[in-house]
Amino acid sequence: MSEVTPHPNLVQNYARFPLRFVRGAGCWLYDEDGRAYLDCLSGIAVNALGHGHPHLTAAIREQAGQLLHTSNLFGIAPQERLAERLCAASFADRVYFCNSGAEANETAFKIARLWGNQVHGGSKPRIVAAEASFHGRTVGALAMTGTAAYREPFAPLPAVDFVPYGDVGALEQAMRPDVSALVLEPLQGEGGVRVPPAGYLQQARALCDQHQALLIFDEVQTGIGRTGDLFAYQHEGVVPDVMSLAKGLGGGVPIGASLMREELAQLLTPGTHASTFGGNHLACAAGNAVLDVVQGDGFLPGVRTAGARIAAELQRLLGDAAVEVRGRGLLIGAQLRSAPLPLLRACLDQGLICGVAGSNVLRLAPPLIIGEAEIDALVERLAAAWTACPIA
Ligand SMILES: *Cc1c(COP(=O)(O)O)cnc(C)c1O
After folding, report:
1. 216 lines ligand 1 (CB under 6 A)
2. DSSP state letter for 67
3. Using a 6 Å cutoff on CB, does residue 100 contact ligand 1?
4. CA 268 to CA 34: how far, in whole Å?
5. pLDDT confidence of residue 240
6. Which of 104, 111, 112 is nearest to 220 (CA)?
7. 373 Cα to the center of ligand 1, angstroms
8. Which pLDDT score, from 0 to 100, does residue 77 have?
9. Which mutation among 47, 106, 107, 135 tests ligand 1's pocket best, with the greatest number of atoms within 8 A of CB?
10. What is the pLDDT of residue 183?
11. What is the pLDDT of residues 206-215, one digit of tens each?
């Protein structure tokens, strides 16, 4: 690894690894020295189709040569097409496009306010969210994020009440008629790849119905096939009122989306909300190309099969060092007994890119196109890293 010194003209808000990648192909990334790394993080669950995917690349190229952006003052055909497809594949009637996960959650926050203020006469000032959640870094999304380290430097934030994730009793306590929305990840990503107990999401839905609160699912990380279903909510058939998407949707081109029921879409009249870039031609061409592949025959079963094999290999490899291997599809976490950073560095030494989540969780989120040969390489490299750096 050649050294990357912190750049004097960049804000030092990231702790970067000393690597710069210059090219990618499939599940592989190549650094400045031409060394190959197996990408098992996908730019944090973004590169759903890996790197240089021919269909996505061709779609972006073609759109770039035709038209990049016109603003939402005009109709945008690729945006209309992507909205039609997202609605046809989900509970939603309408889509609002933006550029990131945080922005999609900001939209959800504003819908919750309109629901409380306009539909319920200001009687629903409270929003409930989960501890250890992650919803993004803008002020509204941060307000819903139940992780103290991210929040505290920016207090005071809009008030949100937090409940322990997966605890039905705590949810019953928190949910009251003055709650406008409950915001949950159907499977927590950043918080440590935490799968809720069976029935938790059903209970959440029932409590929202009882108190006329919106159920908002943040599927920024879990959406677009990551968990082996197109959307994670489909696993248990618990349908939200609003859903946030971003990360995998553009396969690496920035795009976010808020999907919602008709009744809620009616609240977002002209003047209430907007984005200059949101859903432009280029981003939506990328989104459509990603959907072409992810909705193809056998693609999602392939995600489930690959995920099951990786989880089993991880369990076998880590043995007693892993408290638990968990996740769904190709969002996999191994809860370790100590900090995973030394192991992460040992993986990089072996040409393998992994991630961390929550406290002491090794996270794997490879491209959804990962095949048998790459999984073999993953197992081999992870085993070598583990030998070099076993952590207690
Ligand atoms: C990454 C993430 C976000 C934030 O997305 P940005 O595009 O970084 O704003 C929000 N929610 C979840 C669940 C995420 O994983």
Report:
1. no
2. -
3. yes
4. 49
5. 98
6. 104
7. 30
8. 98
9. 135
10. 98
11. 999 999 999 9
Å from CA of 33 to ligand 1 middle: 31
d(C-alpha 6, C-alpha 15), whole Å: 9
Q: d(Cα 250, Cα 246) in Å, to the nearest integer?
A: 7
pLDDT band at 348 (very low <50, low <70, confident <90, very high): very high
Q: Quick one: tokens of 368?
A: 């959804």
C-alpha triplet 227, 294, 369: angle, nearest 5°? 75
Cα of 220 vs centre of ligand 1, distance in Å, is 6
Average pLDDT, the chain: 96
User: How far apart (Å, rounded) are the C-alpha atoms in residues 55 and 59?
Assistant: 6
CA of 221 to the centre of ligand 1 (A): 7
The pLDDT of residue 6 is 86
**Can you give the pLDDT at residue 359?**
87
Mean pLDDT over 165-178 rounds to 98
Integer Cα distance of 360 and 374 in angstroms = 25
Residues 6+ apart with CB under 8 A from 252: 43, 46, 47, 51, 56, 286
Which residue has the least CA distance to atom 11 on ligand 1? 135
Comparing 96-100, 209-213, 386-390, which segment has the lowest mean pLDDT? 386-390
Q: Which atom of ligand 1 is nearest to the CA of 100?
A: 7
Per-residue pLDDT at 302 exceeds 90: yes
Give the per-residue pLDDT at 160: 98
Give distance in angstroms: CA of 34 to centre of ligand 1.
31
Model confidence at 3, in pLDDT bands (50, 70, 90)? low
Ligand 1 pocket residue status of 101, Cβ below 6 Å: yes
> Cβ(102) to ligand 1 under 6 A?
yes
Strands 331-336 and 361-364: antiparallel
Residue 103 CA, closest ligand 1 atom number: 9
Catalytically active residues, by annotation: 134, 218, 247
- Rounded CA separation 109/127 (Å): 9
Q: State the Cα–Cα distance between residues 144 and 270, nearest whole angstrom.
A: 26
Enter the tokens of residue 269: 């009249």
Residue nearest to atom 10 of ligand 1 (CA): 135
Pairing verdict, β 179-184 and 214-218 = parallel
Helix then strand count (H, E) for the chain reads: 14, 15
What are the phi and psi torsion angles at 123 (to 5°)?
Answer: -90, 5
Atom of ligand 1 nearest to the CA of 185: 13
Amino acid at 271: G
